Amino acid sequence: MTCLIPSCPVPILAAGLGLFVAVVPVAAQEPATQVTNVVLEADEVVDAGEPVPVVWLGPDSPGDYIAVAAPDDPGYVALEPTGRGSPLRLTMPAEPGQYELRYVAAAGSEVLARRPIEVLPVSATLYAAPRARAGDALSVDWDGPDYPGDRIAIARAADGGTAASTPTRMGAPLTVTAPHAPGAYELQYVMNTGDTVLAAQPLEVVEVSATLDATETATAGAPVVVTWDGPAYPRDFLSVARADDPGYESFRYVRDGSPLILDMPTEAGTYELRYVAAGVGETVLARRPITLTEVSARIEAPETVPAGENIPVAWEGPNYRRDFVSIAGVAAPDGDTLSFVYVGDDSPALLQAPETPGRYELRYHLGADDRVLARRPITVTE
Q1: Does the domain spanning 125-206 belong to CATH 1.10.260.40?
Q2: pLDDT tens readout for residues 251-270
């Protein structure tokens, strides 16, 4: 057999078998391409805490990352996986000094490239009043790096814990709500990296107060004029309640102005008016006792009326807003009505009788809770 090309099978006689076996030469394979040129590019000098763009070239194997670390530290201060692409943003340390960027391979944590980088100090400034009332919205002007997550905070002087904060992304100036508890605090610019305080100044939070002025006695259910003075924080309100009741019978927001009208409970007794600071943990800043006396009413009408006819009804009563006179079956619940007329209309007024003969009842209702103050029986005839 004649072969004229290099790759031609070479005939070999298999010993003792009389067979030829074709052997085909195989060209040597090239080794897989490996990335040996690992490069890091970034600014040589940066600010503390700054998210710095880092351009890199490397194998980008799963688990590889770019880190920043002190030159003699085998660990790192911060890292970002190379899977996030190039360039990526790497947050610099909060502490100024000499550092290095590293390309670290996941396999064996081998450092494939290093690049020195200098981290400079960064500063901030605060401009705010040294004193605030508890729960007040403190206006703070500031200057600082405004990195993502940075904030203006109020910290307790005793333990350094944060009592309130507002992110700097809200702009300058911004407002921070003063704590509920009076005392010594510190206003701070806090850099998110390492919760580093870049600027601080003392802040005194003082107690807040309020006053109430109103009549000492009123009729149950009456609208009472209340004059008040207080911080007028958002959601602050005036309320009336039993002295031992942490809740309230009725309320009005102070944003409605001073004086304002507060409807009293319909049950006689001893109560108190309150100024409640919702912005300070619903703290009662002022209390004023008020006594409510019994309220009564009277109805005059004929004893009988033909079915479907108009009934002339006269009344005397408190004539509160939404009070009304109704007719209902004599055994019907107080909330049931067949027809009614508001007491805001002139007295006497006409109330239509039911079409069905029988025993009925005229009633004077308080509009606040449908409580019946007066009743008068009436018979509807055929």
Answers
A1: no
A2: 999 999 999 999 999 999 99
Is 40-120 in CATH node 2.60.40.10? yes
What one-character DSSP code corresponds to residue 301?
-
298-381 and 125-206 share a CATH fold: yes
Question: What's the DSSP call for residue 256?
Answer: G
Beta bridge partners of 137: 177
Give the DSSP per-residue string, 37-75: --EEE--SEEETT-EEEEEEES---TT-EEEEE-TT-SS
Assign domain 211-293 to a CATH class.
mainly beta
3-state secondary structure at position 255: helix
CB 240 within 8 A of CB 223: no
State how far the Cα of 321 lies from the Cα of 250, in Å rounded to an integer: 15
Contact predicate 220/292, CB 8 Å: yes
**Best CA proximity match to 176, nearest among 143, 156, 208, 154:** 154
Q: What amino acid occupies position 106?
A: A
pTM flag (> 0.90)? no
Per the document, the length of the chain is 382
Q: What is the C-alpha to C-alpha distance for residues 344 and 271, in angstroms, rounded to an integer?
A: 28
Could you write out the DSSP letters of every residue in 72-95? T-SS-SEEEEGGG-SSEEEEPPSS
In DSSP notation, 82-136 reads GGG-SSEEEEPPSS-EEEEEEEE-SGGG-EEEEEEEEEE----EEE--SEEETT-
